Amino acid sequence: MKTYFVYILKCSDNSYYTGFTNDLERRFGEHVSGKNKACYTFNKRPLELMWFENFNEVLNAIAIEKQIKGWSRIKKEALITQDWDKLILYSKNYTQFGNPNDLE
Fold it and tell me: Does the domain at residues 1-70 carry the CATH identifier 3.10.20.600?
């Protein structure tokens, strides 16, 4: 059975990069070495692997990657720190519950 990974890297400028791969070790090595000059992370090294999850279904992994890419920074940080209460809070409608940045 094939395994797929969704991962979050922290860049030297403190931004986050979310990606998808079928070989996490290889892909992280490519990011670190700067294999692809067109990649978002090329000029943002050094990098730190902050979070990853593995999936057995490629379509599930792709869907999760796309979902996380659309998240706010604080929501990604809640995922990274496994703060499930904050993750739920930050998932709520801003117009109903306010901006999560104001809750800190």
Answer: no
Taking the C-alpha atoms of residue 26 and residue 36, their distance in angstroms, rounded to an integer, is: 13
pLDDT digits (tens, 9 = 90+) for 77-97: 999 999 999 888 888 766 555
Burial classification of residue 40, based on how many CB atoms lie within 10 Å of its CB (0-12 exposed, 13-18 middle, 19 or more buried): middle
Residues of the chain with CATH 3.40.1440.10: 1-70
**Alpha carbon distance 46, 10 (integer Å):** 9
- This prediction has a pTM of 0.87
Determine phi and psi for 39, rounding to 5 degrees.
-70, 145
Q: Which of 73, 54, 57 is nearest to 7 (CA)?
A: 54
